[in-house]
Amino acid sequence: MTAPGRPEQAGRTYAAHARPWWQRALLTREAGIIALLVVVVALSLQYVDNFRSPLTLPYLVLDTAPILLIALPMTLVIITGEIDLSVASVVGLSSVTVGLLVEAGWSVPAAAGTALLVGVACGALNGFLVAFVGLPSLAVTIGTLALYRGVAVGLLGTKAVTDFPERWTDLATARLGDTQLPVVLVPIVVLAAVFVVLLHVTPFGRGVYDIGLSPDTARFSGVGVARTKLLLFVLTGAVAAFAGVFFTLRYGSARGDNATGMELQVVAAVLLGGVSIFGGRGALHGVLAGVLLIGVVSSALRLESVTVNVINIIIGALLVLSVISPSVTAWIVRRRRPTTLRPVGKEER
Question: Residue 298 in contact with residue 306, Cβ under 8 Å?
Answer without folding.
Answer: no
